Amino acid sequence: MTAAEPQPCDTPDGEHDGRVRLYPCGWRCSTHSPWALAGMPEPGTAAAKPADPSAT
């Protein structure tokens, strides 16, 4: 299996930022990704991980 080569973001409007990844909806940068458009933090970041309840 070969990896897909990153393409420019498929969204023509606005500022672009972050990595470009292939989603089912096409190539999207971090600004136009499905999780960003839903107002969610980037998956895999500290902001996206739930707090550890045993840390209190």
Question: How would you describe the overall organization of this protein?
Answer:
This protein is largely without helices or strands and 56 residues long. It is built from one helix and two strands. It has one helix at residues 34-37; strands at residues 21-23, 26-28. The chain has a two-stranded antiparallel sheet. The model has no long low-confidence stretch (mean pLDDT 80).
Summary keywords:
56 residues; little secondary structure; single chain; 2 strands; two-stranded antiparallel ribbon
State the gist of this model.
The protein has 56 residues and is mostly loops. A two-stranded antiparallel sheet has the order 1-2.
Cα(first) to Cα(last) distance is 45 Å
Structural class: little secondary structure
Shape: elongated
Biggest sheet: strand arrangement: 1-2
Q: Helix segment count?
A: 1
Q: In terms of per-residue confidence, which ranges show pLDDT below 50 for 5 or more consecutive residues?
A: none
Strand-residue fraction? Answer: 5-15%
According to DSSP, the number of beta strands is: 2
**Rounded mean pLDDT score:** 80
Give the SSE order as H and E letters. EEH
| Biggest sheet details | 2 strands, antiparallel
**Helical percentage:** under 10%
Question: What order do the helices and strands come in, and which of them pair?
Answer:
Layout lengths: L20 E3 L2 E3 L5 H4 L19
Antiparallel strand pairs: 1-2
